[in-house]
User: Fold these one by one.
Assistant:
Number 1:
Amino acid sequence: MYDVIIVGGGPAGMTAGIYLARAGLKTLILEKETIGGQIALAAKVENYPGYLSISGAELSSNMYDQVVNAGADFEFEKVINIENSEIKKVITEENKYEAKAVIIATGSKYRKLGLDTETKFIGNGVHFCTSCDGSFYRNKTVAIIGGANSALCNAIYLADIVSKLYLIYRGNELKGEKVIADSLIAKPNVEILFNTVVEKINGDDSVESIDIKKDGKKENLAVNGIFVSIGMDAQTELVDSLLKKNEYNYIVSDDCKTNLEGIFVAGDCRAKDLRQITTAVSDGAIAASLVIKYINNKKNN
């Protein structure tokens, strides 16, 4: 039996694992896909302290090496169920594990456009995080896809970096707050394309242009990159009937404590305002400290 099982091997989960293993707790991290989660897709990370520039894959690998070196077990298995009792049961497609505590660190995923060519260019012209990758497009031409507040705020941020910005939205009016929309519209290098959808992304090694359909008419726009800003989906289906969530399916917590004793949450699957690598790492450390206190209290009682 483990002291703690962490579901998710992104920055939050691995940070929690480092703290817990160093505290002498028997720790298991279960990851269903890729070490690092979403950050593994980032071509460059330039806003994480200690690195002027590092690829998301390398940063993820460094975190993995550190958590394994600290003594945590790391397995690539998909968790399909968690049973809550005094001893938590975590069931994967291959095995059944038991632990005194569980940390949910399953993250969230950016919604994609669903185009055949989209995946090919992720990290090479197709991006989802403006604060992570926007600086690579200084004095270049980009497109942002979306029309809600997040897209508008991302566009305002990028407009001060790029030479030309297209905001592409399938609706006929922006969904974001008027004051934000007005601020964007006032930018001289911004062109808003309503009733427009992206049909294809073109290029060899990186994005060179996009095929769009505006008001039923097909056009081609030369762009150096596109930022997809159509929302995120919390990866919390696993705990649908277990934990309290908000209307957007993010897990509601009190400083990483869920509504169930012995189950904690960390990272982008948690309801909060800011989702960055640094905030995920912070959550991981907080959740780990809570687990240590929880297990020590159980032991003393």
Number 2:
Amino acid sequence: NLGNVLTTQRKFDAAVDSYRAAVALNPGRAIVHGNLGTALLARGDLDESIATLRRAVELDPRDPQVHNCLGSALREAGRNDEAIVHFERVIELSGGDVDAHLNLSRALKSQNRIEESVEAGKRAIELDPRRAEGYVNLAHAYYWLDRVDDAIVQYRHALEFDPDSADIHQNLSIALCQARRVHEALESAHAAVALEPGTARRHAHLADVLRKTGDVDAAIQCYRRALECDPDNPGTYTSLLFCLAGQTAFDPDAYLADARVFGARMSMHARPWQHRPAPLNGRRLRVGFVSGDFRRHPVGIFLESVVAHLDRSRLELVAFTTFDTEDDYTARLKPHFDGWHRITDLGTEQTARRIHEERIDVLVDLAGHTAHNRLPAFAWKPAPIQVSWLGFFASTGIAEMDYFLGDAHVLPAAEEAHFVERPWRLPDSYLCFTPPPYDVQVGPLPMLRNGHITFGCFGKLVKVTDEVVRVWSRLLHTVPGAKLLLKAYELAVEDICDATRARFAAHGIDADRLILEPGSSRDAYFAAYNRADVMLSPFPYPGGTTTAESLWMGVPVLGMKGERFVTHICESLLHAAGLGDWIASDEADYIAKAVAFSRDRGELAAMRAGLRQQMQRSPLGDAKRFARHLEDAFHGMWDAWLAGTPGDVPAR
């Protein structure tokens, strides 16, 4: 009785002592072993809890409560296959135990037996249709099955019985986002914040939804409120800095100040290793790459041709993957690495130690402030040389990050102060294109059969800012009959299509001048380039992957000269491909070039016929050339470290 009172009061240490005394007095009674095992579980002593509850089951194998407790302990330990056996035994013994059905459903879901999880979850609801937890559990299972609409229905049922649960409102918001019902998702996110205004993750999720609506300024304010609640959350900093870096009204000093705060907070919790310079003495330079994007993603796409051509007699390549999803790109990337390590579930210190154990010489961050990064681990300095490349377009803010890898176009000398890292410039472009694994041929110039020019832009609609809409509308007014083909995944939602038409209509552009298309399969996506004559790169946030893919499909890209790394990406690619004259200096030049190019059908047709070959021969498509430059960069960084001097390649 004393143990039960102490457990109710959540005094688990004292409860355990009391139950141990009871076991000593009554070693043959299952109930006292069960009570002790339950108290041990509540205290977090999993191994002893499991052993104690097993003894209880041995003493009374027909006690459903003991089986349920043992199943819970096993599930807590990640041993779901064993837990399922005991939850099923509870159901055999008691039939109508709601908790057993819920626990069974959760354990089955953890084993990826989702259909069975759904059936157990439905039975739990039948047994107690007024319990919100049952609907939430079933909604989770539906979400895992990608039955998002069914998940939304179940979350709404749960709210009928527990309307004050911030968790349920947020889960509903997440499901609505997945269903691209963003404005409904925003309502649910606001509801979660109203219920728990002091909880950081409520504000952070609201910010995520606001980003999806395109309200980046409001998202930034919500991320800042989340950081007020939890100032050490690296994920919130990453989201904030990503938004700040992509803003139209970018303030490099303000961004860098926020990035330095992030870096300083990460360093506060780190204990960095000290590294002593030592010559290679004939061994290969060991280079580690940290990324969650070794897959069909711009990082994976640009990386593929490069790693395939790196000289393995000079470099030893090690991958540290931070995301479990794998695909055909992953399968092609893996063989080019000497080591492949999954660090998805590791914490910051564990990640740093795992990398340090691999004795990496040069550690490359491929994420920056994007999803699945491990920037906090870089503050531990697990490798003597650390460099950020490819995945992001602004400073990480990590003082322990030695270099930012770019080229003379994205990292001009005048903008070095935008970074805490030292610049290291590759000779041509900092990117190298990987041809797609699809046999999509370049088609003839569309305007020859259409009788008018079709401008195009493929990519995220958020890049098409109000300023971009204004300039493109002006261009359409200047070129009579011209059409604009926009292809973006957001355009699968009719409300967003209507809003897009309205944005152009505000500038006098009729709906029939616009061709709006949703995302598609990759082969269909490449084929869509055969319906555009000239691609328009948005600004200040241009296309990177889409620019390279456009050129591969024979479609020239018109870009705008920028004033910071991200706005220079299109410039870098066009220069590398030999299309420097397609870079406009300002808005007037942008429109003038578009008009001039649109009038020369013969030149556009000739360019279309030869652009893929031109790209393949250029630095942008020459993976062997790029690989030599990258190898030289890594060895140059190593040599500079041995010499004790900061290395760099001057801006041209």
Number 3:
Amino acid sequence: MILFTKLHGNGNDFILIDEYDQEVIPEAEKSAFAKIFCNRRCGIGADGVLFVSRSRHANLRMRIFNSDGSEAEMCGNGLFCVVKYSIEAGHIVLGEIKIETLAGDIKSEVRKQAKEIWAKLDMPVSEAFSEFELSDFEVFALDVGVPHAVIFVDDLDLPISEIAPKIRFDPVFPRGTNVNFVLVEHGDLKIRTYERGVEDETLSCGTGVAACAAIANRLGKVGDKVNVQTKGGLLRVYINDNVFLEGTAEIVYGGAIR
């Protein structure tokens, strides 16, 4: 029997497997497990699977497998879910923590406010960004632990599932890319994101939020404190020398796979 927890961060939903004390899903089966159980018709249904385990040098280790079975470097909303679960499970305590990911160690400040667990993530944002013209769009590319393409638009009412794949699979992105469409409004942002590995639009993408805010700030479109509205809810970004993403997550239910 495999125990799991279903969580979401801003509607970006995950199946979490706790491997803090022992491996639950063998390494060779993790990819297939994600493909099977992320299926919304025949499985549990999720954008990805999170595996939480011990780290030799950090407070926790997080791995994420997308719904297509591919392993991603990291995930912002996934990290919020890992923090929420790990506080409840007693794996970590409030304060400053460090989480090991394939994108490196992510520092986080964890606090409790109005019965909610909030995490402020120090995002690994690259110094430089690139600019391309693709599919008749001006595209800005930035790595925030995972690759992101950022496109500023005047209207978010777009057929994203038709437009985004052409950019997501363009050869200019050797690893592929997530694709974000951004509307600047009164110094804040509204975004829609097509996620690599999910191969569809998701309700929210934490790394996408960070990438959009960072690019918009560098282009002078927003200040150093940015509210970013996604379909799933609101996330906050704070920018100084670093880029900090603040948000929370909810546990939906727990269950067992026979």
